[in-house]
Write a structure and sequence with these properties.
The protein is an alpha+beta fold. Helices cover about 40% and strands about 20% of the residues.
Length: about 80
């Protein structure tokens, strides 16, 4: 697929990122993570930390956290012109 969003159900920061991806019609896969930080091994493997959201862009070799940074990346790199 290319884009994977690691997110927690009910997380407002995750919701902002998924809304921006949806608004721009960008295809992505969501990996839902457990509520407990200690159980977020999948996020830790890809990003080195356990917070969400995390966006992985396999096509461009980019992995990033922090919703504001991800939103900037979506606008600057992924959103259609």
């Amino acid at each position: 697929m290319g884009l994977t969003l690691y997110a927690l159900d009910g997380c407002p920061y995750c919701d902002r990122v998924s809304a921006a991806l949806d608004e721009h019609g960008i295809d992505y896969e969501t990996v839902w993570v457990p509520a407990l930080h200690s159980e977020r091994d999948a996020v830790k493997r890809v990003s080195g930390q356990r917070q969400v959201p995390v966006l992985v862009d396999e096509t461009r070799g980019v992995t990033m956290a922090e919703s504001d940074a991800i939103l900037e990346y979506i606008e600057a790199t992924l959103a259609p012109a």
